[in-house]
Amino acid sequence: MSGLLAGAGFGQPWLLAGLVMPVLALVAVIFAARRRRFVSRLLGGASALRGGQGERLRLSLGVLAVAAVALAVLAGARPQWGEDEEAVPQQGIDVIIALDVSRSMEAEDVTPSRARAAAAGLAEMLTHMTGNRVGLVVFAGDAFPRAPLTVDLPVVTSLIARAQAEAPLVRPGTNFREALAESFRLLDVEDAAQAQAILLVSDGEDLSSDFQDAVDFAERRGIRVYTVFAGTSNPTALPEASGGTDVSVAQPDVLQAIAEQTGASFRTSERIPGLAVDFRRLQQTQFAEGTRSQPIDRFAWFAGAAAALLLVATMLGEGAGTRRPQLRGGLVTAAFASLVALLLVGCGSAAWQHVRAGNDAYEADRFEEALDEYRQAGSAQPEDAAINYDIAIALHSLSRLDEAIASAEQARAIAQESGDGEVAKLALYTLGNTYFRQSNLEGARDAYRAALRIDPSDQDAKANLELVMQLLAPPDAPDEPPPPGSGDTEQGEDGGGDQPPGEGDEPGTPGAGEPSDGQPGESGDQPGGDGDTQQPAQPGTGPGEAQDSPAGSSLTTLEEVQSALEQALGELGPEVSLEEALRILELSQRANELNPLPSGPNGSTPPR
Fold first, then answer.
1. SS3 at position 199
2. Model's pTM, two decimal places?
3. What share of the chain is helix, strand, coil (3-state, %, to 5)?
4. 344 or 143: which leads in pLDDT
5. What distance in Å separates the CA atoms of residue 608 and residue 475, rounded to the nearest whole number?
């Protein structure tokens, strides 16, 4: 019995407050029975002759209806007991996080401290790495393993959170050689992934000089060593609680050199979550399927019992020679309605409910709350493309761009694997907008093109791609002025002549795929919305902004135009409308008019 009741609880415990309904209904039934007995004593005679039904039958029907409502409430609260093993797909790479816990990591030049900022970034990164195997090494003057390669990422996250408290277990200093050597030992497993990586997180201070052989070994083995710089280059006094008032000077140069030598990337601590994108681009390995324990929902038992009681109540009310009881307030009908409503609310997908709550919060511009709801939905269904897309949109609205890219990439990959072209297109479009906000024009271009391959008719993606192509490749004149008499006499100040790539042709047409019929998040469909496909709110055009004349034509100085352009770029939401794209393009053209390139012979523009 104890095994059967293991993990007993409720999936929606807040619905237990609904038990007040059957209690009130029972009070009403008892009060009605007493009232009828009082009337019988006044009038005399059998109650069946007056109402066509016996008092006991009335009371029985009332009790059955009340019991059905109580069972419906319990079913809606999703009672759970016992555990079941659920298969978990495992596909990814092997990553060892080598985390510096030396004393200098307690410096507070990064808010709230180097160690805590790094831990927060790693925790966020791990939320995007489902399916990968991750291990943990902590180091200072020496190193020791804290977790072998595992897919149980919440455990790794909790170990990272308290890693700094374990600093007294290692010798003072910062020894990259020991950290890398211990990481190599954890990566040396029989079922090694085809791609392996080490994530070295440190402030780079107090380096030993004998780590180069370890870096060379990683390069020979094809193990990329990604590095994260936790700190700033400003001299920073260590807090007294760390054992003194020494000054720490973080050193990013060596970390950057290690990453470059092994073909990896170097990042600062606030950009750690974006590493999930880098890891996803490496060759993925299909590991053996794992399992995880899940509580078993037992709501069906309670829902079935409630329905059975209502059926019995209905049959008793059709007894021969009697009129069907009409309980005051239609108690049987109310009980049936309560059963249906509670089952719809409580027994539906937990992920779907979180998505609904997240959508409501998003529409009210409560983006942090929306992100929290979407992530709870993602915990229930980590491989749902639409939920990962929702997370990306919320992160974009919070200007957490690296994390938004990681979630959008994950949504795109899952959607393409499952053949969901519509969500893949939306994820790519959001990815393009996010890259654009990061000034990564090449990344934005590639994302918009990929979105147009899925849906060549997407006007917003076309407009955004055209804008990016204008910014990437403004019209340039030939390096040499044209010979006299060549007929090329209509070049203007901008160097006229060649069209930038992407202009005049319809981008993305070759190889275009067919979009899926469904919209993500349709009611009753997959999580991601609750009715209409609601794209995230776009910054609308305020009063006075919509003008008949081109944007920026009333601006007379280059400084004014540049200020307006910066403001327009800063106001971009996760979805860039055609009007916003055209406004930015017109402002860019106005800036070129106010700051033209000097003209060469025959009106041509000299090469830059």
1. strand
2. 0.51
3. 50, 10, 40
4. 143
5. 12
